[in-house]
Amino acid sequence: MAGDPYQALGVSRSATADEIKKAYRRIAKTDHPDLNSDPAAVARFTAASAAYDLLKDPEQRQRFDSGQIDAQGQERATQRQWRQQPGGGNPFGGGFGGQAQDPDLADVFADLFGQRQGQRAGGFGGFGGFAGRSDQRGQDVRLPLRVDFLTAAKGGSRRITLPSGGTLEVTIPKGVRDGQTIRLRGKGEAGIGRGEAGDAYLDVAVAEHPHFKRDGDDILLVLPISLDEAVLGGKVAAPTIDGAVNLSIPKGATSGQKLRLRGRGVNGGDQHVELRVAMPSKIDPELEIFIEKWRDTHGYDPRKGMTS
């Protein structure tokens, strides 16, 4: 990531951690490669991911703000003032014979001659004994991962697009929750030299289901039943995350009554079924006449005691 990480996220340097997180999420929702294939959007998302990785850590953010590290999270090169030593014209104090050389110079020669850690720049004056320290770990990346309700509950896989442009098949663990983070070791940006690759962090967002809701490992379901099923009882098909099962409705069931299906939730949790009596869309004359006669001899007040 080049430039200013605050600018990449569109926030001020005084932004709070929450404001930084919201800015990153806002960019991810519009510019993630899975949602927007425009190269400019991909570039914005890549820059925002790197910026967020830098600024989300309070200590790392403080070090960047104070100039100790750059926008890539790497230590800034330090300049040292060399003084003329008594008795000689060599400002480095030891000549080029390999005596008392300053190890900070190794970085300079590593940049000039492309040395890598573990290699030696043999034969250049007295500096041949230094090993370059150019190996760097790759940047971590954060990606949004939208998962449908049933895949989150039962597990599965998703193919995602990485900021680098490659794709990756990701295993979705059974029971993953909304807001959970999945870490993929070594799937971030490539390292430099022998530096290991960074990690990828997937921020899980679970989509809503038209019928199911989740409470921990339990599944909640509102199940409509007909008027005759409420009066007479019987067995009805009730959906679960693993398919429909037969559910016994007791005689005289009422709206709001709850039944439990043991072990039909997530990871051994239960499914709780709330019954809701659904009247027919049209009251036919036969039903109307029957209810009028029934009310004359069996009428009751379900609101008794609620009013004075």
Could you explain the architecture of this structure?
With 308 residues, the chain is an alpha+beta fold. It folds into four domains: 72 residues, Orthogonal Bundle (Helix Hairpins); 32 residues, no CATH class; 70 residues, HSP40/DNAj peptide-binding domain (Sandwich), CATH 2.60.260; 87 residues, Urease metallochaperone UreE, N-terminal domain (HSP40/DNAj peptide-binding domain, Sandwich). Helices cover 26% and strands 21% of the residues. The protein is elongated and about 95 Å long.
Quick recap:
With 308 residues, the protein is an alpha+beta fold. The protein contains eight helices and eleven strands. The protein has four domains: 1-72, Helix Hairpins; 104-135, no CATH class; 139-208, Urease metallochaperone UreE, N-terminal domain (HSP40/DNAj peptide-binding domain, Sandwich); 212-298, Urease metallochaperone UreE, N-terminal domain (HSP40/DNAj peptide-binding domain, Sandwich), CATH 2.60.260.20.
